[in-house]
Amino acid sequence: MNSDRRITNLIITGFSGTGKSLVAMEVAQGLNWDFLDTDDEIVRQTGKPIAEIFSQDGEARFRELERETIRKACQQRQTVIAIGGGAIVDTQNYELLAKTGLIVCLEAKPETIYERLFREAAYSTETEVRPLLANDNPLERIRQLKASRQPYYAKANWTIHTDGLSVSEVAEEVIRASRLLRRYTPRNDREKARNDRVKARNDREKARSGIDKDIACLVETETQSYPVFVGYGLLDKLGEKMKKAALSGTATIISDENVFSLYGSKVAGILKDAGFAVNSFVVPPGEETKSMDYAIKIYDFLVERRAERDDIIVALGGGMVGDLAGFVAATFLRGMPWIQVPTSLVAMVDASIGGKVGVNHPEGKNLIGAFYQPNLVLADCQILTTLPKREMTSGWAEVIKHGLILDKEFVQFLESNVNKLTKLEPELLTRAIARSAAIKAQVVSQDEKEREGKRTILNYGHTIAHGLEAATWYKHFLHGEAVAIGMVGAAKLSQRLGLLPSAAVEHQQALLQKFGLPTGFSGLGLTEITRAMELDKKTKGKAIRWVLLRDIGKVVILSDMPQRDVLAVLQELAEP
Ligand SMILES: NC(=O)c1ccc[n+]([C@@H]2O[C@H](COP(=O)([O-])OP(=O)(O)OC[C@H]3O[C@@H](n4cnc5c(N)ncnc54)[C@H](O)[C@@H]3O)[C@@H](O)[C@H]2O)c1
Ligand SMILES: [Zn+2]
């Protein structure tokens, strides 16, 4: 039996088709706890299928039975409880559940839910399935019902994005989350009171010294100085931070469907509580959305809503949303205040800092844009718990890059904590993101508009990366994956020029691999890559400037490398 008494039960909530019951069963097995499904309990007690209770006795009767079953379930200990998709909407249920256990919500996109409910018999045993499927337009109905429940699902202690994951993978995530949460959940009221006292003391000290401890760094450019806040669970303070930054009026949240479905209603609620009027504009996820077409759609929306010059744009999402929303903020009414709430690792440590905003042109990425700094950046590292794993891994490449170019000690920190960092251990994750963001902030503060050449060092690994990305039509690699390979290439090139010892090259390569990043490629011709690199150079109208290393944490910039050396390095990167 599990000996941890801090957590009495684990509650699994989420919409139908997210696999609550199967996942809960597997989690119970993994933890050696008991398992209970409230819908099954109701069927057992009444001797009737749920659909029959709905049709014969009505939904109100079902909810009554559900409340009673939940009340009894909450008296259990060390039980994994799967609850019906609508149970958490009831305040009484929620309060009872939250008091007796940790609540984990399983998320999935409406399309995934639709697919699963129709195609995968294993998922189709739940309460709401029949009425949903009987509807004329089930996908739309799923969308609506799910949207109306989202504010309640948002109250969970943890959310897991299940799209593309198997039941076992989701169960593993739940177990991981429960371990992390246990460590960060006060054992009892006394512990909570002690934590509150410590927090109040820290806040008083902060107030006396005038320093906000959530500030990871300041970006100080000629056009704007602004704070970058980094913390775990920091989202709750967004409204407060915005007010302190003298922002007021209407906030228009711009987000993509993935992120908005997870955090949209929560962020809107936080902003409303802080006194902002809130609008939102949601775009499809993916790089194709970063276009003039979508910028125009957002302009239209702002015109329609009569947005004013001191209203605020809130970019809630990964780098794609940040670049697009920032571009709109830079250009609409000749510039509106805007803030970044980055939700991907890439966005937190890279895209949200430095004010590069823009959209793609069919002829090239980021060809249309501006330098336009936000008023603040707020990164809540807890949000990364729902970021798909491959996106997370890709983001580590930019974090590691920041260490490799400027901070040897940070590289050592990353190295000593790989396991905890990749498991998103809150305290270390926050430290890593804060440091990485601070390095980017330091560089862009010295060279806001990339005129002095100082910002170039951020392109370590990017020359080969761009070649790899362009040669594969941006379809094969995530950016960070290409950067990881590119960094190995740049290190090897540095070694060929006698700048870097081979031990340092291997050291860097091993670190990237530990974070799950690729360090070579296959199935690509070398000339395709070099041609793409040449094309990239032509589009930008500049000679290629190679960022190389002379030690971990120390860079040198050299122009135009002999083709022979570049080819030799690419050859080494090409895996047989
Ligand atoms: N402005 C800059 O300085 C700068 C720097 C680097 C990259 N960029 C740009 O950023 C973009 C890449 O950013 P990205 O890697 O964040 O890609 P992205 O914004 O496309 O996000 C990747 C995917 O993750 C999803 N996602 C994001 N946060 C999530 C979360 N917390 N939970 C679940 N899903 C989540 C998104 O919906 C998307 O599907 C590119 O357009 C690139 O050009 C800009
Ligand atoms: Zn990059």
Helix proportion of residues, in percent?
40-55%
Number of helices: 24
Main sheet: strand order? 6-7-14-11-10-8-9
Q: Which residue ranges are poorly predicted, with pLDDT under 50 across at least 5 consecutive positions?
A: 1-6, 121-127
Globally, the shape reads globular
Q: Count the E strands.
A: 16
Computed Rg: 25 Å
User: What hetero molecules are in the model?
Assistant: nicotinamide-adenine-dinucleotide, zinc ion
For the terminal residues, how far apart are their CA atoms? 49 Å
Strand content: 15-25%
Q: Structural class of the helix and strand makeup?
A: alpha/beta
The overall average pLDDT, rounded, is 89
Q: What profile does the largest beta sheet have?
A: 7 strands, mixed
Reconstruct the topology from this structure.
Layout: E1 9-14, H1 20-31, E2 34-37, H2 38-46, H3 50-57, H4 59-73, E3 79-82, H5 91-100, E4 101-107, H6 110-119, H7 129-134, H8 138-153, E5 158-161, H9 167-184, H10 189-209, E6 215-220, E7 225-231, H11 238-244, E8 250-256, H12 257-273, E9 277-283, H13 292-304, E10 312-317, H14 319-331, E11 338-342, H15 345-351, E12 356-361, E13 364-371, E14 376-380, H16 389-406, H17 408-416, H18 418-422, H19 426-446, H20 462-471, H21 479-496, H22 502-514, H23 526-540, E15 545-551, E16 554-559, H24 563-573
Parallel strand pairs: 1-3, 1-4, 2-3, 4-5, 7-14, 8-9, 8-10, 10-11, 11-14
Antiparallel strand pairs: 6-7, 12-13, 15-16
Bound molecules: nicotinamide-adenine-dinucleotide and zinc ion (ZN).
Residues 161, 256, 258-259, 262, 285, 287, 290, 317-321, 323, 343-344, 346-347, 350-351, 354, 356, 366, 383-384, 386-387, 391 line the site of nicotinamide-adenine-dinucleotide.
